[in-house]
Structure formats: structure tokens, C-alpha cells
# Entry
Amino acid sequence: MTDNAQYWDRPAETLTRAGIEKLQLSLLKSCLARAGRSMFYNAKFKKIGFDPGSASSLDDVGRIPFTVKQDLRESYPYGFLCEPREQLVRMHISSGTTGQAIAVFYTKADLELWADLLARCMYMAGARPGDTFQNLSGYGLFTGGLGFQYGAERLGMLTIPSGAGNSKRQIQIMRDFSTNVIHIIPSFLLLLMDVIKEMKVDPQNDLSLRIAFVGAEPYSQEVRRRFEDFYAIKVYNSYGLSEMNGPGVAFECPCQNGLHVWEDAYLVEIIDPKSLAPVPDGQYGELVLTALRREAMPILRYRTRDLTRILPGECECGRVHKRIDRIQGRTDDMFIIKGVNVFPIQVEQVLMTIPEVGNNYVIVLKRENNVDDMVVRVEVTESVFVEDMRKLEHVRKRIARDLKSELLVTPKVELVEPNSLPKSEGKALRLIDQRVI
Ligand code: AMP
Ligand code: ZN
# Structure
């Protein structure tokens, strides 16, 4: 394979560690100068006595204050703007469902860079000009729609903005236009498995799928394996957040072993969410990101609430951009049951290794007489559901046993009919906490 075939942006993708650090320092200096023009950072820098012109090495990053979601909420809508209103050409809103929304703005240059980063991601994972790309992501305010759209057009794929929902029509479009590359959130790709079966479509022979970019919410390695087996495709994890543009921040390469964060555009740190101190590579903590090149709204040391770690060592693909592990959950997703900290993804990891488990589950937390209970409702596959009670009871016990050995808490497991749990075409709701605190 020649370099041209391997890289979308050869100079950026083949940077050395020293090259990345040199570039980051110069970007950081201009980024700090720009950030100081916003109302928020201007006031913040003054308050803590931070001189944005004083950063002279990357180690100075530690002196920059963290930014949290609440800061963005309180400064809604324009408090973080660094460019005059006339320079803005786009706005998106973070998909978070609670509290005050967060608006993010883009200049023309921001959109250019964003499209280019996404083209780089998709090219790295094997998408090529001439491919047919179907984007089954919500458009509108959600960044997964237009973000991927522009990236895919930049790459040169025939791009179908089919949007979220309309499951049957999506499959029909895939058939009619021989879609071979898709972008989709994991809960919708799971849901489509059932629709495909119902439509009696053979996913491996009637469809032409080759690659799926899957992200926007956590999913386990086991779920990835299910997708790859069912559709006979390669699934690449895609990570991003509106505050940092949207998707295109970190993406898996063909090695499928961690997501490269594009360090020529983002500064990555992992901190202990309690002490806020940096944690060593390999150790889990909260991901903190700085958008080094955004013009309209360069957010500094943003505490994403996403839990991951830096994977130590170099990737076999040769790119030295640091890799993060798949997101384990959000600090605000974690729940405590009988004194044990649990993330929904741990439950998913266990469930999805059990062949009799279908594609949907929900965790319900209850409190009765001051005792907490964790109920895991699990859809079973069609073939198990028609079996006799003994077989079902055997499956139920196995799930309870496997969950207990992973989580060290004994859950109540309820098996339910295929397709009976609420379906989601948007980000899935995996946890219902009914405990009254
Ligand atoms: P939004 O505010 O709509 O841009 O959503 C961003 C959030 O979605 C991130 O902070 C993560 O919590 C989540 N997210 C995005 N991509 C992934 C991914 N690949 N795996 C897990 N969670 C993700
Ligand atoms: Zn790699």
C-alpha cells in the first residue's frame, strides 16, 4: 500500500511525538490568546490571575482552569464566543437531555477543519471515494448528521442523508443503492437487526455493507462483535462531542484497538475526577479535551465526564496520535447499588456474551423498605422464547450468576419477550432509577 492510499492527510497522520508537541505548543498559544477574547475566559483569567500569554511549554496546560458543562450553561448562548457574530456560519446544540441546552458555534474555518477531520477518520478506517455512504444519524441540531455529511462529501462518497428512524425505509435504501458504508448509533444498529429479520432480508447477501462507523453512545466490545458477525462488516468506534465540534475527535484505525485522538487539533488529558490530578497512561479517569484550533469557541480543558484511559504503547498502524480506550460510561451514568459502583456498560458486557440474550435490555433500580434492588430486564431471542420454562429458567439463572460474578451484586433478572422493551431510534435509555433519594 502506498502512503497516498493509506493516509488522508499524510503530514498530520505521520507526525512524530516531537512534531505533535511542537505543533500543540504553538496552537495552544494562539488558542489561549483567542479564548481570552470571550466574555467567559476573559473574566475567568482575570479572576484567577492567569495571563494567557504566559504559556511557554505544554506543561503550562496544568495552570489553565478546567471548563465544565455548567460554565457553558451559565454562559448560554454567547458567553464563549471569540469571534464577532458576523463570522459565524453554523450553530448546533448538544444532545444532552437534562438542563439548559448548550449552543456551539462555527466559523467557516471551523466547518472546513471539522469536515476534514471526519474525512480523515473515515478514510483511515477504509472508506474511499466512490463508496456509497448512508448516514442514519439524526440531522438537525445533532452534530452526527451534518458533521458526517460534510466529511463524507469531502472524502468523495455518494452520501445519502437518510437520517434517524424509518427503519424499513433505511433497509430499502441500503438495498436499492448498494450502500456499503454507514454511520449509525449502536442502539439503532441493534434495532435494525430485528427489523432486518422481520423483513426477511439476508444482511450478508441482500445488502452490500462493508463498514459501519458506530458511536455517540457507549457500547461494549461484545456488541461490536455481534454487529460484525450479523452484518459481516467491520465496525469502527467514532467518538466526539458537540463542545469539541462533534464527531471526528477520536476514531478507530484498522487495528480496532483504541481510538486515535487527533492531537493536531485536540489536546488530550485524563484526570482523576475527584482529585483532578492527571492519571498515568493505562489508568482510567475522566477525559479532558482542549479544542486547539476552533475559532468561534475554543473550549479549554473541558471535563467531558466520559471515562476512558490512554492506551499505552504505539499502535501497529504507525500513527502516534494517542489512543483512548472505548468509553466506559459517563461519570454521571455510574450508579451505586449496595455499596458497589456499577456502569451500565458492565451489565451489557456480560449480557451480550450470552447467546440466548436478544438485543435489548434495561436496568431498573428500586428501593423497598430501605433495601435497594437492581432489576435487569432482558429480551431473549425468538428461539429461546418458544422453549419450555425449564430452558428459560436455566438462561435466567445463568445471567444472574454471570452478572453477580462481574458486579459482585446479585441482580433480579427478568426475561421478557423479544421486541417488548421500549425501542430507541435515538440514544438508548439503559438505566431507570426509581429509588427515591
Ligand atoms: P453530544 O453532546 O450530543 O455531542 O454528545 C456527546 C457525548 O456522547 C459524549 O460526551 C459521550 O458521552 C457520548 N459519546 C459520543 N461518542 C461516543 C462513543 N463512541 N462511545 C461512547 N460514548 C460516546
Ligand atoms: Zn492505529
